[in-house]
Batch of 2 targets.
Target 1
Amino acid sequence: MPAIHIRRPWEMSGRLATPESVYVGRRRFLKTAGLSGLALVAGACSDRPAAARGTGATGQSPASSAAAPSQAGDRSPLYPAARNPAYTLDRDLTPEPVASNTINYYEFSTDKSAVTELSADLVTEPWTVEVTGLVKKPRTWGVDEILRVHSLEERLYRHRCVEAWAMAVPWTGLPLARFVAACEPLAAARFVRFTSFNRPAEAVGQRVQSWYPWPYTEGLSLEEATNELALLTTGIYGHPLPNQHGAPLRIVLPWKYGYKSIKGIVKIEFVASRPATFWNTVEPAEYDFVSNVDPGIPHPRWSQATERLLGTGERVPTQIYNGYGEQVAHLYA
Ligand SMILES: Nc1nc2c(c(=O)[nH]1)N[C@H]1C(S)=C(S)[C@@H](COP(=O)(O)O)O[C@H]1N2
Ligand SMILES: [Mo]
């Protein structure tokens, strides 16, 4: 760490996690650390109503230093957000250049190393998310409005793709549970359905792979969506999401295979019955609705017993629920 930077308690990295200076780059880290100091001051005298700031589904106040952006498009002062120390890792963080250039995002390409370049021109500002279905508060939200109402936090999570590669990443977002609570689902709502953008003009993978059932959709039970781990995500590595990681809004579900963590969300719908999903529609025998990480259930075409860490290539045993059983096992008892 640079000697002049004194770490605040919320910046402490998880056990064995790589310091921020490694993944952000020293100069940019110093810059963002400075901005974060300003954000702390601004946050303290923010004009957001206290009620609107939210206390989190668990009743704990979110550990965040983030201030509200002053206008649409002004998102970067929110980063880096305060790290929630509850989520620690048993492995090093994946270096950002590795994580950001090995990407599944079929709207752009099935070539993991091509997605970053091909997604660069997706227009993400302005961006709205329609909340609809069985809720008391249906409405269309601008992403910047969401960020004005809800404060952000950073979490270090393991990520496990169904293809048996894995990484560990610092995400920035807000508990999906808090967003869901603000929508006030009706008693009849039992599932949440998420839909990604459908813009073949901007997404070459949607143009040339017309056999896929675009747009990409995913779904969760309401209990899963309101589990503490489910993160409505707007940032990664201490800055807003780049397009390849699902800008400006995605979810992250660290106990499930990566394809459940849908990117580029434009619609969140509360429904009574289990919705169809993209991969389950394409290949139902290989990708089920629940898709929890489970080393004991092989994919029909390969074992899930171990995973390969991006960057080092090291093979490590896969853990049930990707190591998050404490938080989620009760959902499947
Ligand atoms: N809309 C959309 N979301 C998606 C995908 C996709 O193709 N389209 N791929 C999924 C898969 S398989 C994985 S592993 C992760 C990878 O992206 P990440 O590295 O940004 O998490 O995104 C998931 N979300
Ligand atoms: Mo994946």
Target 2
Amino acid sequence: MIPLFDLASQNARLHREISAAIDEALLTSRFIGGEKVSRFEREFADYLGASHVVSCANGTDALEIALEALGIAEGDEVIVPAMTWVSTGEAVARVGARPVFADILPSEWTLDPQKVKEKLSPQTRAILPVHLYGRSAAMAELRAICDEHRLWLIEDAAQAHGGTFAGARLGSLGDAAIFSFFPTKNLGGLGDGGAMVFASEDHARTARLIATHGQTERHHHTLIGRNSRLDALNAAVLSIKLPHLDEEIEQKSAIAAHYREALGDIVCGLPALDDRSRHAWHLFTLTHERRDALAAHLAHRHIESAVHYPHALPEQPAFARFGTDPADCPVASHLGRTVLSLPCYPGMGPGDQAAVIAAVREFAR
Ligand SMILES: *Cc1c(COP(=O)(O)O)cnc(C)c1O
């Protein structure tokens, strides 16, 4: 079976260092907070070229806490792309605000700035683009809209560690950004983990306070917070993995370029790339009108594939009460019916790449 990801061999390459970190964690038994966590926050901030990184328990918490730290609450609206992982819309609803879904661009698959403009209302407080599959959203256009209407720009960069836009790292462009360190993400831990990035020190301080029970000093709580922490062991592992991130993205870029070249002449959709930015290649995706049959054909050839994601968020029952008619986001719905992710991971050998290409060509001929 050719897998979609191969975490086991990726981790095996760092086995000695990761094992040593686990041994050290057992020895010190300092599992929460401490130097490993602050060190990773510093290193990740340096990597991004960002000033303030606040770690937390997962990417969904990061979204929720970041929204709360920016003061978004009941009565507010946040514009979210109709095609994304559920967390993006869920977090907005969780802080009591209304997720307003806007359609995506037909060839980039990220938030369509024109559709965003049509969704603006006096209640709009923020725009929350997603760098879907690792490709930068239209940040220049979205920044212009935010500046004109005095809105927060919040990047969901959970799929985009290592990507860039106009020379800057994704996650360093917004008023806030969030990352997930879920194991299969570009930078993944040994379990759940997440981080928030803020342009303002005040927002970072508020977010850290929310994530640590609103505790300013021991047993003194100034606001109703919660518990959302990155484990020290996970922080140590992320510090081990971070220096390899760029090299891993290079490897995935080469595979993606190979796929694009070898599949460019057959009937399937490939995302439009942007010269100004580096795709982070969290996922290599294509579209095909007979997607389910293509997936079945690949499975028959022992090739794993997956759908990210089969439904636009306005189609989900959980979001029905927010009143976006799914028919209002036809591009996102169509992507849900046609998109397929193919195996693409660091260390994937040329033989496996050739097998994937041959199987797709055989089907799509
Ligand atoms: C993975 C992901 C998240 C949430 O991350 P978790 O760590 O799984 O909570 C949020 N947004 C997007 C786009 C994601 O892909």
